[in-house]
Amino acid sequence: MLVTGSVPLVGNFVRESLDLHLFFARIMREHAIFMQAGFYPKDVTYVQQAEQFKCQYDELLKEAIMLSDCTASVDVLNSRELVTDKTLRAEQKTQELTGIFIDMVLTTEELKLIPDLGTIPPGIETQVSGLNQKAMVLTTSFAEFKAMVLDQVTQCCLATNLFPSQLEHVYREALFYLKILKRLQNNQFVDARVDLLEQEVFWDEIMGEHAEFVAHFLDPSEKKLCQKARDLARRFEKLEQKMKGEGIPASGFGQLTQKNLSATLAVAEFKARGTELILDCQLKSLLSPLLIDHTLREANYYLRILQTWKPGYLGRG
């Protein structure tokens, strides 16, 4: 547990909310796409439910983009956590391979966003609060759907081409989105270093699992890349264990954050290279282009947190 005192925190409800939705609404809609692609033909109801969630997150993301022009943080827009230089190609290829419609207009619109100009439009706080509430209701429902599918799979009542651990992984990401949303809506102050600790513990586990999934989805003939993925998974597992250690002093915490930064830079580079190889049809695997680009954007999100973190709070003000 991190040893720290109370830190006075400052921030912006509108900006933090919109930054969160621009990232997580896209992540959630892609979870719906991956689940939809993973169900077998006989499970039409599950396919339809996943399609409905995808469409609902399209609408949520569309509203977030509309509200974010001249409001979103410059750090977020420059981080490549929302859209990379590969995302549009990955969407095009994944739509071609799966037959699942992907609204790529949202991607081009996100690329056009202008960052915060230093002023918040009047009346936007009420709109953003309403958007947060919509996202909470939708994500609660989606988390329940993910949990139900996971339960059906683990009881051998349903088959998908996703690992049970992948279903648990996407479920935890939905819960994490909800956790931050609730803090924002409830104007909840969080000790800054405790917030960073929570982020690092969570994303270390996510990054490690990404590496494990990649290792399992690569063709066995891709021996070097398989080994690289396993090495990265072990690296994050060790970091996660250290982050969960008892009584981390401030100096030790800083050192661990630097190690997390180094590891996340390495995994982001690995994912970026993997995305290029898949898009160029130079990699034997079961990975879709959008799946690997999806994990790259999550690494970029974590990198931005590690590189730009400063005391702040989740709430209005």
TrEMBL record:
Pfam families: DUF2935. SUPFAM superfamilies: Bacillus cereus metalloprotein-like. InterPro entries: CotB-like. This is DUF2935 domain-containing protein.
